[in-house]
Amino acid sequence: MNPFLLLVLIFLTLAWVLDLVLENRNLSCLSSAIPDAFTDVLDAKAYARSQDYTRVRSRFSMVKGTFEYLLVVMFISLGGIGLLDGWVRSLGFSPLVVGLVYFGILGLASDLLSIPFDLYLTFSLEERFGFNTTTMRTFWSDRLKGYALTMVLGGVLLGVVLWLFMRTDHQAWIWCWGCTTLFMITIHYGAPRFILPLFNDFTPLKEGELRDAVTQFAERVGFRLAGIVVMDGSRRSSKSNAFFTGFGSRKQIALFDTLIERRTVRELVAILAHEVGHYKCKHIIKGLIMGIAKTGVVFWLMAQVMGARELSAAFGVEVPSVHTGLVIFALLYTPLSLVLGPVSNFFSRKHEWEADRFAALHIDDPEDLVTALKKLAADNLSNLTPHPWYVALRYSHPPVVERIRAIRRLARAGGFHEAP
Ligand SMILES: [Zn+2]
Predict the structure, then answer these.
(1) Where is the catalytic site (predicted)?
(2) Domain boundary at 248, 280, 312, which?
(3) What residues sit around ligand 1, an ion, with C-beta below 5 angstroms?
(4) Disulfide check for 351: which of 132, 283, 393, 416 has CB 3.0–4.6 Å away?
(5) What is the pLDDT of residue 418?
(6) Is 127 a catalytic residue?
(7) Within this chain, do residues 275 and 295 fall inside the same structural domain, yes or no?
C-alpha cells in the first residue's frame, strides 16, 4: 500500500480510537452521588435522568463517529477520490466548474448520509428527554435554507479559492487568506442582520421589570447596548441560552424565550452580565483574530501539500488538480485538527472564566449567577461530572461545578483567584 495512504489511514484510525476512549472514560465518571452544590435543584430521580441523557448522547456520538470513520476509510481505500474526479471530468466542464461540481457532490452526499442520524437525534433521542419542539416542517425547511446558504456563500468562497490556486502560483495562499479573511469579517458582521433572521424571529424585549433591570446594569458598567431582543428558541428546543449579536453601536443581546420563562430577573441580569463580560474582555474580537490567524496557517499548509504529485497518485488521482488537492489536504488535516481543537477549547474556557469573573464582580450578588448556572445545567441535563481529559479536549466551557466553586470563592475573598 502507498505510504501516504497508509499514513492517512493510521491518523484517521487514531482519531477514531481516541474518540471512543474519551467517550468511555467520560462515561466511567458518572456516579450516583449528586454534587453538593446541586442538592437543592436536583433530586435523585432528576439526577439519574441527566446521567441517562449523557449516556444516550455519548452512545449516539460513538455510533455516528464509527459510521463516518468506516465510510471515509472505505471511500479513500477504494480510490473514491480519483474515481469521482474521473467521472466529473468526463462531463466536459471547465476546470473551475469541475472543481465546484466535485465539491458539490461530496458535500451533498455527506449531508444526505447524515439525515437519518439528525432525524433520530431530533425526533427520537431529544424527544424522549422532552427537549424537542421542532416540527418536521421546521426540520426540512432548516435543511433547505442551509443548502441554499451553502450553495451561495460556500460556492462563492470555494470558487474564489479554486480560481486563485489555479491562477496564482506561489502566492495563492496569501491571496486566499486575504479573501477568506474578508469573507469571515463580512459573515461575522452580516450574520445577525441577514442570516440569523432566516432561521429565527427576533423581537425587542417588552418594557417591564426585566428590561429596566438590564438597561440599568448596562449603564452602570458603561456598556452601550442598542437593544435587547428575544429569540424564539422554543421553535426548535426547550433548551435555553443567551448570546450577543451585532457589533459596535449596533450590538444587541439575544435571549432565548425559553430562558426568560424560567429565570428570575436577577438571574437573567447575572446571565447578561456574563455576556457583557465577554464583550468587555474583548473575547469576540480576540476570537475573530485567532480564527483569521488559524486560516493563514491552514492556507500556507495547503499550498505546501497542493503541489505534491506523489500524494495525488497515492489517492488514485490520475490528473492532479486543485480540487482533489484540497480534499487530500482535508484528510491530512486530521492530525492537525486533533491538536488545534483542544488549543482553541483551552482559550474558550479561559474566556468563560474571565466572563464569570466580570459578572461576579459587577452584579449585586454573585450568588445570582450561581443559581442561574445551576438551573441552566439542571434544565439542560448537563453532565455534572465530566472526565478531566474529556474537558481538556472537548469542552468549550469549564464544567459547571468548577465554575460555581470559583464564583463562590471569588465572592468570599472579594477578589478573583486563579481558576481551579
Ligand atoms: Zn460565556
Answers:
(1) 275, 356
(2) 280
(3) 352, 355
(4) 283
(5) 43
(6) no
(7) no
